[in-house]
Design brief:
Elements: E1 7-10, H1 16-25, E2 27-30, H2 37-44, E3 48-54, H3 61-65, E4 72-76, H4 85-90, E5 94-96, H5 103-118, H6 121-129, E6 148-152, H7 156-167, E7 171-175, E8 186-187, H8 191-197, E9 200-203, H9 217-223, E10 228-231, H10 240-248, E11 254-257, E12 276-278, H11 287-307
Parallel strand pairs: 1-2, 1-3, 3-4, 4-5, 6-7, 6-9, 7-8, 9-10, 10-11, 11-12
This protein binds 2-keto-D-gluconic acid (8YV).
2-keto-D-gluconic acid binds near residues 78 and 284.
Length: about 325
């Protein structure tokens, strides 16, 4: 069977070049264009064999169960928290994502946020543009080099963050169920102890129920008045209200955030803090990395329906 005879479901809007590629090789259903998705799937879902989604959109058990012929799900992104993996596993449906190709850009973003918050880069830019330098010098910031960088979640991206931080002469502390494979990293058994030990707390944890609000008022209190929180993982990992209170009470030095619990909405309370840098989830958003992710997303589903191969299958750690 030619792949052009195979029906696939695309869950949410994709970059135009990706969509074109899928339309050239498959019979595409565009779920995001339909207001009544349940009705659309009831009418058209019977013969859909593949699904394409993105990390932020995922795919629910409801959608999976509406597709009796579904064999594989190809996700554009590395995060799995929005994909109902249990529902897929119960049906024997293969799931692929796009790991590794985005590690460097996401880690680069963590370092950019660390420097931006500690050296008050965005604040200084606003200060210069406002002409405030004409009347007084910009106030002192915080040195980053030689400080302690703590990594919560020492996975592929966490290691890339550590490598970069070591380039700034930083010691590496971490929290992870598995011991580090690199020498010289100091492991902590709790996030509170990790936060108390460091100057920068970088979150590279997976999203999902197990890590929801794992960064709470206690962890933020332990991070302390000279501590900086960096979140490049998932917004759900941080108790946002606890963070807002810690910032308002000056119980932490600042925060650099690329992800938010209800993105693209950002709590307006965060706009009031000059010592907070806010990014619209751009960590993997470079032309090079998104091209690599797109190619992997396409190759996974084309490969499966051509010869059964999966380039980057999701391996569930129990
Ligand atoms: C996505 C992300 O790559 O990969 C992830 O898990 O968080 C994002 O960088 C991007 O939103 C494309 O889905």
């Amino acid at each position: 069977m030619k792949t052009t005879d195979i029906e696939i479901l695309i869950i949410s809007a994709l970059p135009p070049a990706m969509l074109d590629e899928f339309e050239q090789h498959f019979r595409v259903h565009k779920l995001w264009l339909h207001d009544n998705k349940t009705a659309y799937l009831a009418e058209h879902g019977q013969f859909i064999r593949g699904a394409v989604t993105r990390a932020a959109s995922g795919i629910s058990a409801e959608v999976i169960n509406a597709l009796p012929a579904l064999e594989m799900i190809s996700s554009f992104g590395v995060g799995l928290d929005a994909i109902d993996l249990d529902a897929a596993e119960r049906r024997g449906i293969h799931v692929t994502n796009t790991p590794k190709v985005l590690n460097e850009c996401v880690a680069d973003t963590a370092l950019a946020l660390m420097l931006s918050v500690s050296r008050r880069i965005c604040e200084a830019d606003r200060y210069a543009r406002a002409g405030a330098w004409l009347t007084s010098p910009f106030p002192a910031a915080m040195r980053m080099s030689g400080k302690i960088c703590a990594i919560a979640g020492l996975g592929n991206i966490g290691y890339q963050v550590a490598k970069r931080a070591q380039g700034f002469g930083m010691a590496i502390h971490y929290y992870d169920p598995k011991p580090a494979t690199e020498p010289g990293f100091t492991r902590f058994d709790t996030l509170t102890a990790l936060a108390a030990s460091c100057d920068f707390l970088v979150l590279t944890l997976p999203g999902g129920n197990k890590t929801r609000h794992i960064i709470d008022a206690d962890v933020l209190g332990a991070l302390g008045e000279t501590g900086i929180l960096i979140n490049i993982s998932r917004g759900s990992v941080v108790d946002t209200q606890a963070l807002i209170h810690a910032l308002a009470d000056k119980r932490i030095y600042g925060a650099g955030l690329d992800v938010f619990e209800h993105e693209p909405e950002i709590p307006t309370e965060l706009f009031a803090f000059d010592n907070v840098v806010l990014l619209p989830h751009i960590a993997s958003n470079t032309t090079e990395t998104r091209n690599d992710m797109a190619n992997l997303t396409i190759d996974n589903i084309k490969g499966y329906f051509t010869d059964g191969s999966l380039k980057t299958p999701v391996i569930r750690s129990r």
